[in-house]
Amino acid sequence: MIIHTKQCIPQSEITDPVHFRNRRKIIKMLSAAGLAGTIGPFSSSASARFSTKFKHRFKGPFSIDENPTAYEYVTSYNNFYEFGTGKSDPANQSQNFKTEPWSLAVEGEVEKPGVYTLEDILAPHTLEDRVYRLRCVEAWSMVIPWVGFPLGDLIKRFKPTSRAKFVEFTTLYDPNRMPGQRSHVLDWPYVEGLRIDEAMHPLSLLAVGLYGNVLPNQNGAPIRLVVPWKYGYKSIKSIVKISFRETQPITSWNKSAPREYGFYSNVNPYVDHPRWSQKRERVVGASIFSPKRDTDLFNGYADDVGSLYAGMDLKKFF
User: N or C: which end of the chain has fewer CB within 10 A?
Assistant: First the structure.
């Protein structure tokens, strides 16, 4: 996931977006949501390649002023175990993943539960460009330009009750479409969660694109969470359900290995993973001869989110 680094990759090294196959599906979805874009030229190669660009975006207020990691790294070096545990598996195994139709179920402690289409979700929202640092628990990081809208804006539409203390997110479960779910590496479907004040924080983003284009399958299409001050596995992908709960949800990695993956999962260089240090990190795409950089508390967002954890023991609640 993301991290602040002075070893930035020049804009000139960012490659054009590729590998969007289902052209009509994406145009239909964006048109219904009032976000129709322009279609780039097709490649002369055997596999169709095109990009669908979002219009009417603006630079979000929390976007950092850093050059993004090269597109080729962001879209080919991924953790998305639903498509395999190797870093290249998601890009290789998700190309035929169909994301239409897509809907999100909203349930629990809210006044407006229901099943909403992706068009329902997107239509009222203005999309923002936000460049965020993301950091992975394996001590690597990227800087990614996301396209999305604040999670808190969506939550307000559902009108949570006073009993809603946590927000739980669930990924699609379909082993036929997501072959990695045929393995027993995790107890599927993938589940993550936030405290509701974390979810309402303006840094929390629901992303539907990156680099100005529709989100690639391997990066969590068609809609995913981005929580930049936490380790990347908190930023759940391909969301199909949002539940508002009074009690803390049981999240996938915390259930699988509670000693290694806490519920909060805030980036904290002072709390080591049991099998490696979290004090330093390597930027994806940098030279192998480049030194690692120091890991920042809350991934560099301490001034923004530190108050959420005032008085908490961040080593106990890791």
Answer: C
